[in-house]
Amino acid sequence: MTDIFFYIFSIAALAGAFGVVFSRNTVNGAMFLIGTFLSMASLFVLLEAYFLAVIQVLVYAGAVMVLFLFIIMLLDVKESAARKTSLYTWAASVIGFGILIVGVVAINSADSIREKAASLPEATGVSLKSFGYELFTTYLLPMQVTGFLLLIAMIGVIALSKKAKAD
After folding, report:
1. How far apart are CA 149 and CA 162, in angstroms?
2. 41 and 64 share a domain?
């Protein structure tokens, strides 16, 4: 039964991801992204990683998508402003996709990764307290840098929208 749910949720995640990529309307693309996030959270539940599933729904499908929708509405992107893609854009996309596929296949076929994964100890003693401690001690600087980058991005969007309305 778990296999059936895995296939259902993985197909839903892939369909949502393709919907994000091929959607012409930005709001529809954001809605497809929410569907993808929810499908990924369902896959985390199937893996019995309940904390990751809750974080996926609360942080990504909730807060980040509200921020994305706020920025989309603030910029007021018109559908008529969409440009046609050039040959260079398509060529760069195909090359980037090819590099991605080659990298995934190379990582998947590497024997050293399988050996390292087999030698790792079981994570039975992992608790939420140790996760929080590591997050706010060892990884405090990356958390702060990420917060400042998001703040700078929001200020940039507000500055761009004010400048566009002034013109």
Report:
1. 20
2. yes
- Number of neighbours of residue 164 by Cβ within 10 angstroms: 10
**Which CATH number characterizes residue 47's domain?**
1.20.120.1200
Q: Is the whole model's pTM more than 0.70, yes or no?
A: no
Q: What angle do CA 150, 83, 92 make, to 5 degrees?
A: 75
**pLDDT, tens digit, for every residue of 20-74?**
888 888 888 888 988 999 999 999 899 888 888 888 888 887 888 877 877 777 7
Residue ranges making up the domain that contains 158:
126-167
Could you tell me if 14 and 33 lie in one domain? yes
Structure tokens given for 30: 């954001």
Alpha-helix runs per DSSP H in the chain: 2-22, 26-46, 50-55, 65-75, 87-109, 111-119, 128-137, 140-166
- Say how many C-beta atoms besides its own lie within 10 A of residue 82's C-beta: 11
User: Do 135 and 59 fall within a single domain?
Assistant: no
Dmax over CA atoms of the chain, in Å, equals: 61
Contact (Cβ atoms closer than 8 angstroms) between residue 5 and residue 46: yes
